[in-house]
Amino acid sequence: MRRIGYGAVVAVTGLMAAATSASDKRKAFRAGLAAGRIQRMPGAFNPLVAKLVQELGFEGVYVSGAVISAELALPDIGLTTLSEVTERGRTIARVTDLPTLIDADTGFGEPMSAARTITLLEDAGLAGCHIEDQVNPKRCGHLDGKAVVPSEEMVRRIRAAVSARRDPDFVICARTDARGIEGLDAAIDRVRAYADAGADLIFTEALADASEFAKFRAAVDVPLLANMTEFGKSDLLSAEALEGLGYNAVIYPVTTLRLAMFAVEAGLREIAATGTQSGLLDTMQHRARLYELLGYQRYNEFDSGIFNFTVSE
């Protein structure tokens, strides 16, 4: 077995896993929410996308429940399990130095289940999660036909989640879906109660336009998260516009999956029609770029026996 000197150990730091501890990522997330600059958190549907999100200079990574469902070829109606969501969050958080926020649906059950959810997500290295006030099983937040639990029941979910938290920097975000069911004023009343119950961050789903985002900001004195998902009920506002409205974070939950699936479908159709992928090469990520993102060259610094070849252009 090859002996590895101290210099090689230093070189591998941050290579196979993030160099930043879960505790430090949580502190960074809290600091970012208080910094007066919006925290941009694109959705990552796998760890490789999370590495790219970090490389391109974003402030955080988001893991969408809708995307986890879609990857399993399931609709976003509460069919995924806590173990499936936790494990996907673990694999993504492990590779990035950025804080990772994950969608925990309704907490996967009653308040005691929400408490267990927090303990598992903390152990998986996540920086925070959001829990919503929909009836379980839930629905995608931008679909009609949703139902919400009484505010008092959601308050119990949040209190249970907060009580289970061991790292005080783990961010517990309360999401309300009441805007499309009970109206904006009712949604505001709800999240005020959720903040009083200990929620650190508030996420109101399916606000319509800038005026509603502004009204919500004026009414609620806690950090706010905006959801900029495509083809939904909300106008797509820029990060700059949301920052100007006083929002603290923005997620782009399904964007990368939609981009990828559009390209995959177009490519498969091309191969089905022509029998070859040769006409698609200019639309593909080159092998050399993939290896760069994976850090192949740094593995050579760790052990030259791993990386002992060149990539031809």
Q: Any idea what the radius of gyration is?
A: 21 Å
Shape: globular
**Total individual domains:** 2
Strand fraction band? 5-15%
Class by helix and strand content?
A: alpha/beta
Q: Which CATH class of the largest domain is shown?
A: Alpha Beta
Report the end-to-end length measured between terminal Cα atoms: 33 Å
What secondary-structure arrangement, pairings included, does this model have?
Blueprint: H1 6-12, H2 22-33, E1 39-42, H3 47-55, E2 61-63, H4 65-71, H5 82-95, E3 100-103, H6 111-123, E4 128-132, H7 151-164, E5 171-176, H8 179-182, H9 184-196, E6 201-204, H10 210-219, E7 224-227, H11 239-244, E8 249-252, H12 255-274, H13 287-294, H14 296-302
Parallel strand pairs: 1-8, 2-3, 3-4, 4-5, 5-6, 6-7, 7-8
Description:
This protein has 313 residues and is an alpha/beta fold. The protein folds into 2 domains: 22-252, TIM Barrel (Alpha-Beta Barrel), CATH 3.20.20.60; 262-304, no CATH class. 46% of the residues lie in helices and 11% in strands. The chain contains 14 helices and 8 strands. An 8-stranded parallel beta sheet has the order 1-8-7-6-5-4-3-2. Strand 7, helix 11 and strand 8 (249-252) form a beta-alpha-beta unit. The chain is globular and about 60 Å long. The two termini are 33 Å apart. Mean pLDDT is 92; it is low at 1-10.
